[in-house]
């Protein structure tokens, strides 16, 4: 489905997939962060609703930013910024 025609040439879906993969990796570490359970629940809800990862990122930009800042993950924050500015 190509609903993001104004973003032609950008891999918004692929970038969102990469960000969610990083989120799952970080939140699966078992650090006890309050965000781990939050994102596990929200990702499950997103899947049940049949929404894609780009929708998820757009709906959770601020909480994702807080989590990646807590993890001190500059690469994930850079990717999140890119997605927010160019795709969401």
TrEMBL record:
UniProt keywords, alphabetically: Nitrogen fixation
InterPro entries the UniProt entry points to: CowN
Pfam families in the cross-refs: CowN (PF20543)
Biological-process GO terms, alphabetical: nitrogen fixation
Record flagged with keyword Oxidoreductase: no
Domain of life: Bacteria
Coiled coil: none
Entry function: Is required to sustain N(2)-dependent growth in the presence of low levels of carbon monoxide (CO). Probably acts by protecting the N(2) fixation ability of the nitrogenase complex, which is inactivated in the presence of CO.
Family assignment from sequence similarity: Belongs to the CowN family.
Protein name stated in the entry: N(2)-fixation sustaining protein CowN
Organism: Rhodobium orientis
Name of encoding gene: cowN
